[in-house]
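ok so heres the complex, two chains, lmk if somethin looks off
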Amino acid sequence: MRVDEIKNGIVIDHIKVGKAMKIYDMLELDGSDCTVAILKNVPSKKMGKKDIIKIDGNFNVDYDMLGFLSPCITVDIIKNGVLSEKKHMELPDTLANILKCKNPRCITSIEHGIPHIFKLVDRENGVYRCLYCETSAK
Amino acid sequence: MQNLINILDLSCEEISELITVADDIIDNPENYYEKCAHKKLATLFYEPSTRTRLSFEAAMLELGGSVLGFSEASSSSVSKGESVGDTVKTVSAYADIIAMRHPKEGAPLVASQRADIPIINAGDGGHNHPTQTLTDLLTIHREKGTFENLTIGLCGDLKFGRTVHSLIAAMSRYSGIKFILISPEELKIPSFVKEDYFGYTPYEETTSLDEALPNLDILYMTRVQKERFFNEEDYLRLKDSYILTPGKLENAKSDLSIMHPLPRVNEISVDIDDDPRAAYFRQAKYGKYIRMALIMKLLNIH
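and the predicted structre for the whole thing:
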């Protein structure tokens, strides 16, 4: 199977198998007019099988969200048909408007117009807590 | 501009400075009568808490300042649907400092992001209540003269008791502190509190107040609330074991300090009130002095 090489754009690689569509949705790629290829079940030395998303064109990726969804993802930035940068994702220190606090006693449950912010408190175990009520995100 | 949202917003040095000022206020109250003249404290209490509100108001009045505000949400613009952010933005135009009590966790932090004047968290749901912790710290200082080398017993509802969690957070920063956590199985301290604060601080857990008492320098009592139990039977079985009576105190140290954030229901027998070891009414008084010191600090008044 062959998918055309991209000229200028990005390749979101090493996506956990089966998660490409979720990332497509979270990045709101359905609203983009870039050419997008979603590759599923691609053989991988490192992961056995993986998913890949190729985006041809100018698209601003939310790296915090990618890092949060799957820290093993790598992002290749392609310029003029060549790899210009390889980014390794990591868990971001802060998540803004990616998670919503589930604590019904949290101020975010009633106060509109404030950002939902979570802070990374334990990188090893990937634990985030709500900035406002300090409840851990599940 | 500084706010007080969480007790850990204050370093040990800042707490020490506040305590030094509070000590001086107690010794020389007349030097502070005019410190906050023409300044206004707004008490924004979205849920009633007469004790805390009066303590803040007494503190500001004793500094020569004035107070304004509301004591429940129904008598404010909140009942018309105004956001916390808009309310404090408006109040910033009328007052110099805000003390906020709110049933929702994190509301004072939201307020501090919008207000133009300092915010003091006067209790946000079951989350934080830093001026109670400052009160507890001043009490420990006045009773013991130190924050080091103390064995502190925490008794009662350690699961939901925010005053207990904050006191652990604050005291675990000092050396030589040991905690003895006395509670029924159902109300043991949550694991997140242990993970956060007991890295270097030794602690023991027990269900027996009688066994723990002889070792304690401080006994911090809290209320065991009936509604926390799944069934009446468990409550009836447990409630009496966490009531402090003169008989239980026989084996305690002669210089024990008994503290309680108040209000109490029946967990400390009134027969103990006249015992010199009963510190809880002195503790209430210290609450006013430490709030005076805090208001001055946040208003940058020396």
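quick notes: The helical segments of chain A are 20-26, 63-69. thats all i got rn
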